[in-house]
């Protein structure tokens, strides 16, 4: 079985998934249009140094831009879009396929997707620049580098998501997975801050030095081959190409190992089970003491447990944790004013609420239990928000403390927390109706980052809608922090808490009756076979 069979199978499954599903067709067309726009914009940007004849600008833009493309392939699936699992590896577990054949076929199928085609088309602008600056030899070297860069993008995306999918299925490994992902994301900070500082102070020599370093890493090496030929450093081409190919080989080996474990399933370890206290009733055992012994308390306890035990939900928590670690440091180290800091706080608070944008999709057909039990819509949504807030609330407190202390302004911590609470409440008000009206089913796979065809774009659009809506809805608070100055340090906390609470109650009031009316349709949507 060759790789072309996997490609044909993926294209056939994608086409079949679009039949008689108008919303999927719309999302697919919209995704193709966005990909085409990104490809054209990328080609124009990367070809600009060649059109202007700027060797220095090309030496800075191509390695840094290529590194940004690779990092985008690494983190965007984890943060926003997920990974297209039209060909779920677990479905091939019973077939007599050698591991290398399966890996080669899945890798070829990943290259046949819209993101890979758009990435290749956008980075071809680098070939244009290399041809203008160094002639045919430089263009051929850059073409080889762009091709190797695309292979690196796909390999790093699939290897990392597959590895974390395997790790997140084991509750013993979840803490290690969180630390690894957060640490990897934190590596972006110094590079971005150095680039921003260089651009702000017009210290292009500093940015060029950063680009020179990046050009000798696997992130930027494939995109600087043509520039090396144009500069008379042809000896660097085989060295960098070997570095990139070795990185691709290591990533494929990593993916192969995690792929086999994903097909076989996580081995259950025979650990000691906790003994339950027979003297306590079933309600006392399931509902913590800090929650009321009511239906709201039981539903909240269930949601809190699911957010920690379900792999997909843990992946969302990790995503928010990564962004929550990085953005406060970026905000504190930047030289922007109060408006910029407020904008980043709104982004963090709204991003926390985005995890609930497809909260019913996490349940799938299990949501039928709540429909049969006749749980009222407001109670359902309030308990889900409370269960998630058990994790989001402490995270917002930590983020606020980090932002205030790193910035050297501990007196602003209460106002910062009020702004975060306001953004979180507004984000919940926007996300709750979205979760009822725009829910989508998730594929039945062990990979918590997996998305079916069109699902990744749906996730990205829902996230974007929540972020934009929260930014607009919190404009009164942003204006207040800008106009009131030091007075906002005292008013920020009560005003933010009141504003966020009012927004959440309004969103709950609108989304609750909507859920009561649409519960059967919602169940059918999230239970659809993928």
How would you sum up this structure, described in words?
The protein is mainly alpha-helical. Helix content is 77%, strand content 1%. It has a two-stranded parallel ribbon with strand order 1-2. Helix 5 crosses helix 10 (236-264), helix 14 packs across helix 19 and helix 20 (475-484) runs antiparallel to helix 21. The longest helix has 56 residues, at 114-169. The chain starts with a helix and ends with a helix.
Keywords:
530 residues; mainly alpha; globular
- Biggest sheet, spatial arrangement of strands: 1-2
Overall 3D form: globular
**Straight-line distance between termini:** 24 Å
Q: What's the rounded overall pLDDT mean?
A: 77
Helical residue percent band: over 70%
Q: Can you tell me the residue ranges where pLDDT is under 50 for at least 5 consecutive residues?
A: 266-280
Write the H/E string, N to C. HHHEHHHHHHHHHHHHHHHEHHH
Radius of gyration: 25 Å
- Determine the number of helices (DSSP H or I, runs of at least 4 residues): 21
Strand content: under 5%
- Strand element count: 2
Sketch the major β-sheet. Answer: 2 strands, parallel
- Name the structural class: mainly alpha
